[in-house]
Amino acid sequence: MLSQILPVLLFGCILGLNITNKLIVCSFLFILSVLITNLMAKLYHTANTLSIAMLCVLGSLALNWYNINILFIGSSAAITISLFCSTNLFNILDKKFALSFPISNLISSAIVAIIDSIIVSVALLNKFQINKVVEICIKDCVFKLSYVSVITICIYAILYFIEHLRKTNVASKA
């Protein structure tokens, strides 16, 4: 069930990224996309995760063909590169270093958030002056890193709650 929902959610997030122009919403949708991709990387094989992510980006491009400009192409390139880096980095942290899902997600999302902000800022150089682009880049990084932190805390809280429920159920059965 979850394996069927995740690609649809990822497509919705990527499509939403290209529809909205609010920085705070774009940052949230980006981090949500990275979280979904990392979750898919945990559940699927890396090649499957990357192919699903690329299909979602291509589908978003196809649905927004009428709006293609340098900023749109830069945004699509940024999300493509970011999801690729996130999946590979997450797999390295998860498999090679055997870190937990929340920690692997936190590290990969934080690194990729900075990479994405820089790529999008380069695309914005064509539209804004350099000082405005730097300001947007810093705000974007702050929003993304804040979202990553909050999501990690929420994941830990949910995992703690599930573990507490398991212990309570085991104790009540004994």
TrEMBL record:
TM spans (from-to): 6-35, 47-66, 72-93, 105-125, 145-162
UniProt KW keywords: Membrane, Transmembrane, Transmembrane helix
Name of the protein: Uncharacterized protein
Organism: Orientia tsutsugamushi
